[in-house]
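Good morning,

Attaching, inline, the backbone tokens for the sequence recovery test we're adding to the shared suite. The designed sequence is right after.
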């Protein structure tokens, strides 16, 4: 397989464990099981239940309990329209590898999570990438999408809420996208890893699988639910798609671990509590980020509407990788360069970590900027 580098992942791998202030992270302040039990406020003895789990493959496509809890995140989606995967990354790759063929026309966006551009490209699809710009408030240009689709367009891929910009599609925009996809009978794959983290209610906005007969939603426990350590994601879509994916998964997933399945079920059955915690963390930390950007003359930002990342622009004679490397070396603050998202002149700032880390990281960043 010939595939281009997944630059944000490579960057994180290389530098993440080498900084005092990690402002590159995208999960909302992960917890250990003791903390999780407290946040969820449940009486179940989690440790004992885990000790009593038989460590076999478990339910291959995800337990009925888990798939029912996942289906509760959507309207009109039953448990048999869900299959469980290894993280959101596994959900996207299972769908893309199963439904993109060489020569297909696939529409993607940038800046965005690059998986849905790079995987189809490596399969041999022809890619059209639509660019989000800060001059358009990072919103999707619906007319550009309409102009880009062709009779042979097989798939439109989006990330909503967007990583790195934090932009959220309005219901109206989503309806227009569905209408455009429908004219050419294209799949609409939306990576909804940050769904639930829109700061203003309703926190869960409309999902692809709810609004379109060829709409596929991928989700994960990693971001909104703070548990990247259980490596659990899912795909929700039409029954015949899920049936086909359940056939394909035998070749490269089989099941997820039964401990992960159990923990995810617990969280999703008590999701209101963790959501309340996480929305609060995101909003409070974003206030800090907004204050910081507003006071720095060299920076500007379209405020994110959801999620754990902002994508500020900077006005300095320096590439984004150089900026991030210097800031890391001189102040031990880690960001992700815009170049990793094919969007120079920006950096991704993740604010899901505990408040003190964000606060002290921004102070160090501010201090560093004084020299320019
Ligand atoms: C938009 C998006 N999708 C998917 C993933 C993959 O995450 P995971 O496999 O932990 O669910 C990420 C991780 O950063 C992401 O930002």
């Amino acid at each position: 397989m010939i595939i281009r580098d997944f630059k944000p992942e490579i960057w994180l791998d290389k530098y993440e464990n080498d900084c005092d202030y990690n402002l590159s992270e995208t999960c909302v302040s992960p917890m250990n099981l003791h903390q999780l039990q407290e946040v969820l406020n449940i009486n179940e003895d989690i440790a004992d239940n885990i000790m009593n789990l038989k460590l076999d493959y478990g339910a291959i496509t995800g337990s009925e309990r888990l798939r029912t809890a996942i289906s509760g995140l959507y309207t009109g989606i039953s448990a048999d329209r869900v299959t469980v995967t290894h993280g959101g990354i596994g959900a996207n790759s299972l769908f893309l590898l199963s439904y993109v063929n060489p020569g297909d026309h696939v529409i993607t966006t940038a800046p965005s999570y690059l998986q849905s551009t790079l995987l189809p490209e490596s399969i041999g699809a022809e890619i059209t990438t639509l660019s989000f710009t800060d001059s358009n408030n990072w919103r999707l240009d619906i007319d550009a999408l309409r102009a880009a689709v062709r009779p042979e367009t097989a798939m439109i891929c989006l990330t909503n809420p967007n990583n790195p910009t934090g932009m959220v599609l309005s219901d109206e925009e989503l309806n227009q996208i569905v209408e455009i996809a429908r004219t050419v009978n294209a799949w609409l794959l939306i990576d909804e890893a940050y769904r639930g983290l829109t700061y203003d209610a309703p926190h869960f906005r409309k999902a692809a699988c709810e609004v379109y007969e060829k709409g596929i939603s991928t989700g994960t426990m990693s971001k909104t639910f703070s548990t990247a350590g259980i490596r659990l994601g899912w795909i929700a879509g039409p029954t015949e798609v899920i049936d086909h994916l359940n056939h394909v998964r035998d070749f490269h997933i089989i099941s997820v671990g039964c401990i992960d399945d159990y923990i995810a079920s617990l969280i999703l059955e008590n999701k209101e509590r963790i959501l309340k915690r996480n929305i609060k963390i995101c909003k409070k930390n974003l206030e800090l980020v907004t204050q910081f950007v507003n006071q720095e003359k060299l920076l500007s930002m379209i405020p994110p509407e959801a999620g754990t990342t902002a994508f500020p622009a900077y006005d300095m004679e320096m590439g984004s990788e150089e900026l991030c490397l210097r800031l890391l070396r001189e102040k031990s603050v880690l960001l992700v360069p815009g170049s990793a998202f094919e969007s120079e002149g920006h950096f991704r700032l993740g604010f899901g970590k505990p408040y003190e880390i964000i606060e002290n990281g921004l102070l160090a960043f501010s201090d560093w900027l004084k020299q320019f």
